[in-house]
Task: structure prediction
Amino acid sequence: MKNQMETFPGSRHFRLKQVTDGVYAAIAVPGTGSLANAAIIDLGDSTVVVDTFMSIEAAKDLQTAARGLTGKPVSYVINTHWHSDHTSGNQVFSPQAQIISTTAAREIMATVGKNRVIQQLSNLETLNQAIAELEERSKQETNAKLKEEMLWELASEREYIRMLPDFAYTLPTITFEQQMSICGSDRSVQLITYGGGHTQSDAFVYLPEEKTAIMGDLVLSKHHPVLTHANPQAWLHILEQVELLAIETIVPGHGEICSMRELYEVKQYLNDIHALVAKAVRTHTGIEELSVPKAYEDWHFTTYFQSNLKRVEQLLAEAAGEQ
Result:
């Protein structure tokens, strides 16, 4: 295994790390076209890739790494959810590989995701304007950590726009409702969904014998969870179900390879955000006055903190309106 890792140590988009025998994590390098993590699993007689990055170039490097590590072409690609940083590289693996997602995730990709790309292609000026505005804000930002994160975001957005003319939005070809297995000669994987939490439908990949899970964005390591399309209470329920599985090692959607500790940290974050917003609503305090709790000051994706607060505030308002 060591020699195989030396053959392809990674690319400018990601660093390869061996998780366990036959399982490799492709950890995204900030400021490149990867953005999210991916994984490669050698089943023995076939190869699985989990998530495909945000750019074609990053996905091509992932494809090269998978073949270099396993000696076989990729047979299966699993999309853990519909977000572009996990699915934009699908076209690189199609049609040779079967692309798999939950039924609900594919439906969202076929509608919301596809329409978003069509709009982006027809209105590149708006995207470029947004990048110019972010660049201007980054120049004025005095907080070094925030400035660095804004520069990473800028680089990723530019990479995405460069890719768009060659982008062919590629949908999953196989879907499942609750669980499916892919059985190989050396090891097998389980694809599991407990519904939607981070998005409307989230799946993860579980290797029971290896006690390993590739969790997509249900678990992030030292990154603010992104609540843009989230249902935090459902997310918490999903993580409680994951806790019942025998898992020791996690490949998160963002951040370094981690353990169940980071799953517990995500649960705490979701609870803390809810408590912060609920208190602000009770005391008629504007959520824009809330600052990042000390426990999360060193986490990445800091720019999502305010939008996370707004999402929870929106959900609380909707819940109150229903009562």
